[in-house]
Design brief:
ATP synthase mitochondrial F1 complex assembly factor 1, alpha+beta, ATP11, transit peptide, six-stranded antiparallel beta sheet, 12 helices, disordered N terminus, mitochondrion, 6 strands
Length: 240
């Protein structure tokens, strides 16, 4: 497989899984028949819209900003991306450490993206400090050829000295816009950086006790947080 930002999935029971209704408790069967080969992700060539080896130094001069304060770097990062059509953030060290530590034991999760009619599920997979997302339906229909549709790049180079981690993203604009990508990025913080035990518990259940996982619990958490409300509202306005 030559697709760069692709997930490699082995769907031995794909035809069986495709018959399972959303929310079915046999999510465990899906987990068992999906084998993530994260090492391969970083070794593949680049797919449409994604940059190969997107390092922090390819964005700006690291040595130059080392003389700046964390607040100054934050402003530079925000100003740099403000005019660009993408997702970006400056994550405090403590929050990133929490996300990162949890990602080591629970590297995969499911996010729900509000659509005009209901929700679309996206599977997220950590590979190093990159977080790759692709639509669940893409995995179901294309299997190991399911390419990443959104990649969140996290840069911890300044974490120890400045106490911040820089993040930006690239997306396949044929599948999602910036607002939709932002909604998914917000869910990473919602589920991985939360202090609420029940919320992170969904991530643990998905990874460790997949037979107990239910899709609708993700939607319920998203709606309770209010993260998707603005996006849903905009979509409804566009519909009229």
């Amino acid at each position: 497989m030559s697709d760069p930002a692709a997930f490699e999935f082995r769907l031995e029971k794909r035809s069986e899984f495709l018959k399972q209704p959303v929310g079915h408790s046999r999510q465990g069967d899906f987990i068992k028949c999906v084998e993530q080969k994260t090492d391969a992700l970083g070794k593949q060539s680049v797919s449409r819209g994604f940059t190969k080896d997107k390092t922090l130094s390819s964005i700006f001069n690291i040595e130059m900003v080392k003389e700046k304060t964390a607040e100054e770097i934050k402003q530079i990062w925000q100003q740099y991306f403000a005019a660009k059509d993408t997702v970006y953030a400056v994550i405090p060290e403590e929050k990133f450490d929490l996300i990162w530590n949890r990602a080591q034991s629970c590297p995969t999760f499911l996010c729900a993206l509000p659509r005009r009619e209901g929700y679309e599920f996206f599977v997220g997979q950590w590979t190093g400090t990159e977080l790759h997302f692709t639509a669940l339906i893409n995995i179901q229909t294309r299997g190991e050829a399911a390419a990443s549709q959104l990649i969140l790049y996290h840069y911890p180079e300044l974490k120890e000295e400045k106490g911040i981690v820089l993040m930006t993203a690239e997306m396949d604009s044929t599948f999602m816009n910036v607002a939709e990508a932002q909604c998914i990025a917000n869910q990473v913080q919602l589920f991985y950086a939360t202090d609420r035990k029940e919320t992170y518990g969904l991530v643990e259940t998905f990874n460790l006790r997949p037979n107990e996982f239910k899709y609708m619990s993700v939607i319920a958490e998203l709606e309770q947080s209010g993260l998707g409300a603005e996006l849903k509202c905009a979509q409804n306005q566009n519909k009229t």
